[in-house]
Amino acid sequence: MNAVAAVAEDRSVLLAATPARWFEVARERWGELLVDHASCEKKAASTALSLIFTYPEDFALTDRLSRLAREELRHFEHVQKCMRELGVPFARLKPSRYAEGLRKTVRANEPQRLLDLLLCGALIEARSCERFEGLVPVLPDPIAGFYAGLAQSEARHRSLYLRLAEQRTGGEDWQARLLVLAEVEAELATSPDPQFRFHSGEPAF
Questions:
Q1: Residue 193 dihedral angles phi and psi, to the nearest 5°
Q2: 40 contacts 54 by C-beta, under 8 angstroms
Q3: Are 89 and 69 in contact (CB under 8 A)?
Q4: C-alpha–C-alpha distance, residues 96 and 59, integer Å
Q5: pLDDT exceeding 90 applies to what percent of the chain?
Q6: Which of 51, 99, 101, 149 is the most buried (most CB within 10 A)?
Q7: DSSP per residue over 63-130, as a string?
Q8: Residues paired with 193 in a beta bridge
Q9: pTM passes above 0.90
Q10: Cα 203 vs. chain centroid, distance in angstroms?
Q11: CA-CA distance, 154 to 12, in Å (whole number)?
Q12: Rounded CA separation 162/126 (Å)
């Protein structure tokens, strides 16, 4: 699959587009966005590592997620480099409601829990891809060029999580479950939000 096709598939996974207002705020608050982006890359690596520790007997899963975790950490290093070069200081930010909202949908029992975690991972990567792509024309270089490359990476990660989910359904209709989770994700990514974060909803300020 080429990069253009992968990005197109991302759009089909998401049930709603990011509000235009979010991109308008991002143009003005790109420094704050970079700070939260660094945190998101760390969380993405941490999520992959958590799955490796939780399901160590699944060699196919751990092999692929080990590679993903390393790539996410390289992205984190690149974001930190951008922050240093652009003079953006580190700041501690309160967690956004997005990840927590998705976590609340994850079922407790196996194999449903693993399926939900993988599908949530796919949705998060798909949303990241969509926002990176939308940020490219509104942000200055070098951030715009950096984000253009990341959009393709996030599309690959989305595809990986979906493949892993499809292979571990436990007999469940994984596409039907994806639709349920995608509805929750769409609400979190588009409803009014008092915070501005990389995965926040429509800015309500």
A1: -140, 125
A2: no
A3: no
A4: 32
A5: 90
A6: 51
A7: HHHHHHHHHHHHHHHHHHHHHHHHT------PPPHHHHHHHTTS-SSTTHHHHHHHHHHHHHHHHHHH
A8: 203
A9: yes
A10: 19
A11: 14
A12: 10
| Distant-in-sequence, close-in-space partners of 172: CB < 8 Å, separation ≥ 6 | 111, 112, 115
Q: Position 27: which residue type?
A: R
Alpha-carbon 40 to chain mean position: 8
Mean pLDDT of 115-133: 98
39-73 tens-digit pLDDT? 999 999 999 999 999 999 999 999 999 999 999 99
- The residues near 189 (Cβ < 8 Å, ≥ 6 apart) are 14, 16, 18, 98, 127, 199, 200, 201
SS3 193: strand
Q: Which two tokens stand for residue 46?
A: 């941490």
